Every structure is written in C-alpha cells, then in structure tokens.
Amino acid sequence: MSFDQLNLSPPLLQAIAEQGYTKPTPVQEQAIPVILSGRDILAGAQTGTGKTAGFALPILERLYSQPMPKKPHPIRVLVLTPTRELASQVLESFKTYGKHLPLFSDVVFGGVSIHAQIKRLQRGTDILVATPGRLLDLMQQKKVDLSHVQFFVLDEADRMLDMGFIRDIRKVITALPKQRQNLLFSATYSKEIKALSAQLLNDPTEVAVARENATADKITQSVYPIKQENKRELLSWLIGDGNWQQVLVFARTKHGADRLCKQLMRDGIRCAALHGNKSQNARNRALGDFKDNKITALIATDIAARGLDIDQLPHVVNFDLPAVAEDYVHRIGRTGRAGAEGEAISLVTPEEGHLLGAIEKLLGRQILRVADTGYETVELNLSKSSKPKSKPNNQRNRRRKTSSNGNKRHLATSSERQAQSRGNRR
Ligand code: AMP
Known about the structure:
seven-stranded parallel sheet; alpha/beta; 16 helices; binds adenosine monophosphate; 39% helix; disordered C terminus; Rossmann fold; globular; 2 domains
C-alpha cells in the first residue's frame, strides 16, 4: 500500500514525502482509515512502529477538512503522554506532518515555568500535547479550555497507568465534551488498560501490530554473560572496538546512570546521563547533543527514555536488565526502527539470570549468548537469581586493557585479539 491510497490531502502527502517515507507502516495502514472514518480506536503499538504518524496524520486531515476557526483557535485535539520527552516528540511530529497546513500546535508539561505556557495558550492552538500533571494544574487555574476538544488521544496509555496517572486522566476526561473521538495507544493490554478502554472508548476498532515488530528481524540481539565488576570495561571496549558513534545505554537507577557516565568519560567516551533528577534544560541538552552526535553514549533510566525517538539508532545496550520483561521490548525498540538495522546487547550477571529468563519467556525464544566475552565465563541460571559462579578456565583474571582515550583498545593476548576480530566481524 502507498500513502496515496490513504485519502490524505496533498499538503500532508507533501510533508510525508519530505520526510522520506515511501510507504505506511503496518500500524499506519490499519489506523489511518479507521481514524479518518471517525471511529474510536484501541491500538496495540509501541514506540518505533510509526504509531505517532498513525494518529497525527488522520487527525491533521480531519482538522484540515473542517472550516478554519476564528483566531484564537480553540483546542480541538488533546494528546496526553506520560513523559515530557514523549510530549515534545509528539508535538514535533504534528509540526512536521502539519507544516504545510494553517494549524497551530503546542505542548505543556511540568518542570518548566507555567507562566510562559499560559501566555502561549492564550494565543490559541488547534492541537495541545500535554502530560497529565501540568494539564491539571492549568485546568485548576482555569487557563486552558477543553470544551472544544473533538479528538482525545492517550499515547502510551499503559505507561501512564504504570506511572499512577489514572486519577489525573479521569479528571481530564470529565472536562472534555461528551461528543468526541477517542484514540487509545498502548504497547501492552493489561487488565487496567482493558478497564480504561471499556470506560473511555465507544465501540472501538481494535488495531494490533504483532509483537514480533518490536523485536524485528532487523535487530540483532545478544547476551554477554558477565560479572558486574567487568561490565563497564566491556562496555567501553565494545564502544571503542566497534567505533560506535551513537549508543543508548540503559541503567537501572539514576545513581547508576550518573556513575557509569562518569566512568565512561574517564575512558574517553563522550556521554551524558538522562534521568528524572535532571532539570528539563539538562535533559533537552543531553538529548540534543546525542541527536547531533556531539556525544557518543546516552545513559538513561527507563522512565527518562520513554518515548525517545532518535532516528536510526544503531546500538542499544542493557547495562542492567530491566526488572519488568516488557521494558526489554520497549528498550530495544529504540533501535532498528522503521527499516533501519540495529543491534541490542545485554550485559547480564548471574544475579540477573531470572530477569533474562522472564524476557526470553516473553519473547518465546532464546537470545544468542556470546560465548567468549573476553572475561571470566559465568553461568546464568534463568529460573532464579543466583550467586555468581565462575568457571575456572584459561581466561581467568585476564582483563582487556583499555587505553586512556577509550577508542583504541590494546588487547593482552592473542586469543583476545581473535576475540576482537570476531567482534569486528559481528
Ligand atoms: P513512532 O513509533 O511514532 O515513535 O515512530 C518511529 C519512527 O519511525 C520515527 O522516527 C518516524 O519518523 C519514523 N516513521 C514513521 N512513519 C514512517 C514511515 N511510514 N516510513 C518510514 N519511517 C517512518
């Protein structure tokens, strides 16, 4: 199918062509006609599937087909997202796809001055993207009028429920007109999501993109069984040896992300940490620097990384495995996006064996183990957490030697050189 067959107007088709998209992704193919027909939708799709264009394009089309309202334009579209990063990216998508249309879009989220947002809202906007907390603040101060909303989108609804936003969402819904079109996007269908969709959606059409898309064939996945104390050195080596230019690294805690970042910097690798304790400015700067290739590694926690949209991210590393198996799918969905190839590497300690077990159960298959990590061999017990067991073999106590700039690594032995050349071939 081509975009031409989706009944979109020329200004939208032009914007799509300028983005270089040649054909709709599966979720776009399914969701766009349903949304254009005016029906509610329950869509199972995660970041990386093209879901944002899947709702932004038909919404823009529907707005464009209506008579243009008088200025200041009332809010006709409300999109709720769990995080500021995702909110910014959704706004960017509306602006990109709507660049040839006379429509306005804006975003509000916490962590920045509310006054500037109030001023901007007074000028009017057709599309408002918001995180729930800040939107409620604005509603309580009577600075936002939602009485003209025709399209209500809950993006990454499962995340919003995980983050405890259900009461806020309910309050927002009470401020919306009864007559409206509702679109709910969620990567997973929990009991809570089903309950929410039963309340919110009116005879919805279900659109599901198979889970396989999340771990698409284009993503090469591998596991390095490794002791905790060797993880950082191995990561530095992987970055230097592979001459990686852009890698997103997941750490479990904010503190862990900061510490790892400092250690990588000592290895000469340019990096920044992205987590909830950073100011909005610091987060924007880190993300901007990463996108502009000014830094090589972005170390993020799961919450901070939600919704990150970085085109063609080549490498994702799970420095720590996520506690929730579904998060693995979200994390590696950052790579191999929209047709590009990607690599997802997990550094797994014996203590994390049970987490790997849960992930493989969810995926329904085993992830390739790298047999020769260049470090002591460790065994992973997938059924439960276990104490590290090291096998005496000829690699004991041999470490990769790292140079001070982190780029050129000198390997200690010939078998390690072989390991390097294997790495190069990977
Ligand atoms: P999303 O799932 O909305 O976060 O989108 C993931 C990425 O896919 C974004 O970088 C989009 O720019 C890109 N994308 C969306 N639709 C298409 C398409 N039809 N063809 C190629 N890339 C796309």
